[in-house]
């Protein structure tokens, strides 16, 4: 996958997620988590960019298992960063309910689908 295509699908993913976040402000229980949602968007975006650049190097490697290792590392790091983000948000802002998990799950799913798409395309890079 070329960087130009990656940038295109990344911007599309960010745009769709931003629209969903802004639509969520119509629900009072979700409006109070607006900055948290944008923080998650930024975190997952940065993680995806890092994975793309590491993947670009590893996809053309002779060792086909290196890219598989990146997939596992991405999965584990995404889970750890997600857990940290939720715990920090709960500790700092002490939300009165668990509605903050709704934007988290939606954004997590969007970025998981997006990463599966671009990593699948990237893994097919010719050596």
Description:
With 127 residues, this protein is mainly α. The protein is built from 5 helices and no strands. The protein has helices at residues 3-24, 28-31, 34-59, 65-93, 101-123. The relative contact order is 0.18.
Distinctive features:
127 residues, mainly alpha, elongated
Provide the fold topology.
Elements: H1 3-24, H2 28-31, H3 34-59, H4 65-93, H5 101-123
Radius of gyration (Å): 16 Å
Q: Work out the helicity level.
A: over 70%
The main β sheet shows up as:
none
Overall pLDDT score: 94
Number of strands: 0
Brief summary:
This protein is mostly helical and 127 residues long.
